[in-house]
Amino acid sequence: MARLILPVLLWLALAGAAPVRLITQLSTARIDINTSFRGAELLVFGAIQYPGGAAPGRTPDIAVVVRGPAAPVTVRRRERLAGIWVNGQAVRFESVPGFYAVAATRPVDRLADERMTAIYEIGTRNLQLSPASNADDATTRAFEAGLIAARSRAGLFAERPGGVQITRGVLYSARIALPAAVPVGEYTAEIHLVDRGRVVASTSAPFSIGKSGFERWVYLMAREHSLAYGLAAVVAAVLAGVLAAAVTQRRW
Amino acid sequence: MDIYLPIAEMSVNSLLIILLGGGVGFLSGMFGVGGGFLTTPLLIFYGIPPAVAVASSATQITGSSVSGALAYLQRGQVDIRMGLVLVAGGVIGAGVGQIIFSALQTVGQVDIVIALIYVIFLSVIGGLMLKDAVGALRAARAGQAAPARRARHLPWVAALPGKMRFARSGLYISPLAPMLLGALVGMLTQIMGIGGGFIMVPAMVYILGMRAQAVVGTSLFQIIFVTAATTLLHATASKTVDIVLALLLLLGGVVGAQLGVRAAQKLSPDRLRLALALIVLGVALRLFIGLTWTPAEPFALFEGA
């Protein structure tokens, strides 16, 4: 009897102290880019699992961060040279996500303190882009702001306060819009549970965006059989020209 | 209908691209220009990455030039020997151009340099054509015949050694002159994604002194080969040829070229030249504004290494 009670008591004790857990699910594990691709919507949903199964009286906050494959980006400031705008001073950022979106129950700056949002990289301003240059801090910050603004205008960086719905304090869901210009590659969705300004639980789920069918085939041909691809383009062009001439001129 | 482009990695309105190809193909068939000098900037305005726009419009020019050149060939208005000499020069020029293009890409100034070269060339060519067309129209209104153009080549062309007969062009000159001209135009083709016709056509008339009837067809004939080589070089070196984009442009382009050849035989050439001059100057002005007005985006982003 004692051999049975001990583990049960132990489990009860642990369960009582057990942290809150997040369960998450994505609407899809792979988004295909085909000929008619015009952007997609990812649904991130799941549940908050409280120890003992009882939700507290107050509703916590949730932040959903979706990020795409990171790549280096060189940012150049447009400078005037003899009346013409040329690409001037450059700052290189080593790791810039090709896509980054935050949906949260409230604006990022009211979610948690700056240290917390910086650690978890919640919010476009908190991205660690790894600048690699000998420019001073103020310059680097200005270039970083320029980079974020340009990506935001392209719809590739987004912050959506109020983009997460919490139902009965337990179920959460967020819809993330992915524009037609999203880069292909491996993505992750990170979900953070924030309670009284502290991240108390986190989880993540991967998904991928890839070209499929014809788009994928064309892309691979262009990459790996570039000479054959180029020849095919030329042949297609010549054939189209001959065909047009033949159709419009009876004598041909 | 929206179509996703696999190399440009963006979605475009296919009908708009076909219409763009058709309009440019029409001008190509009419004037013996490739039309890339219009296609490339228009594609860039649309949001296609410049490198993809340059490479893919070269493919389209091949198609509309084949379409137009065949129509002129039937009318006996192509000097094939002259065309082949121009091609030989053009291929050498294209190789040199690719080296320059790659160098500019690594320096990060390729978009500025392309736009700047465009503005200069388009202003000069557009201005010259406008002056020519207005002069001819004014003379016609005054009831005089337009002054006959002096069909003679420049003195330095005559001084080159090793002369050769070009029957259809009505010339007996050294092949070195058209070869040099071909190399220069081929280089520009590679850097700018243009067939070079709008430089080639005036140069054939004013520098080589070719017979006017053979100019447009021969220009289109050599453009076929130079742009085919350009497409191959872009496909293997920069991998920026978007075949879906090129096919959409081709669809309109080859049909437009046929219509252009027919229109050229019917309508008043001076009015057409005036129209082309105004279009060319309009594009130059738009690019000039883009270069000199304070940009909406103070920063430019360059991805990858």
Give your account of this protein's structure.
The complex is a heterodimer of chains A (252) and B (305). Chain A is α+β, with helices and mostly antiparallel strands. Chain A has 2 domains: 18-69 and 96-211, Sandwich (Immunoglobulin-like), CATH 2.60.40; 212-252. Chain A is built from 5 helices and 13 strands. Chain A has helices at residues 2-17, 114-119, 137-153, 213-224, 226-248, and strands at 21-26, 30-33, 40-49, 61-67, 70-81, 84-97, 100-104, 131-132, 157-161, 164-167, 171-178, 185-195, 198-211. In chain A, the strands form 3 sheets. Chain A has a 6-stranded mixed beta sheet with strand order 2-13-12-4-7-9. A 4-stranded antiparallel beta sheet of chain A has the order 1-3-11-10, with no helix packed on it. In chain A, helix 4 (213-224) packs across helix 5 (226-248). The radius of gyration of chain A is 25 Å and the shape is globular. By secondary structure, chain B is mostly helical. Chain B has one domain. Chain B is built from 11 helices and 5 strands. Chain B has helices at 14-31, 36-46, 50-74, 80-107, 110-141, 155-159, 176-192, 197-208, 212-238, 243-266, 269-292, and strands at residues 2-5, 10-13, 164-166, 171-173, 299-303. In chain B, the strands form 2 sheets. Chain B has a two-stranded antiparallel sheet with strand order 1-2. A two-stranded antiparallel sheet of chain B has the order 3-4. In chain B, strand 3 (164-166) and strand 4 form a beta hairpin. The radius of gyration of chain B is 19 Å and the shape is globular. The two termini of chain B are 35 Å apart. Chains A and B meet through strand 5, strand 6, helix 3, helix 4 and helix 5 of A and strand 1, helix 3, helix 5, helix 9 and helix 10 of B.
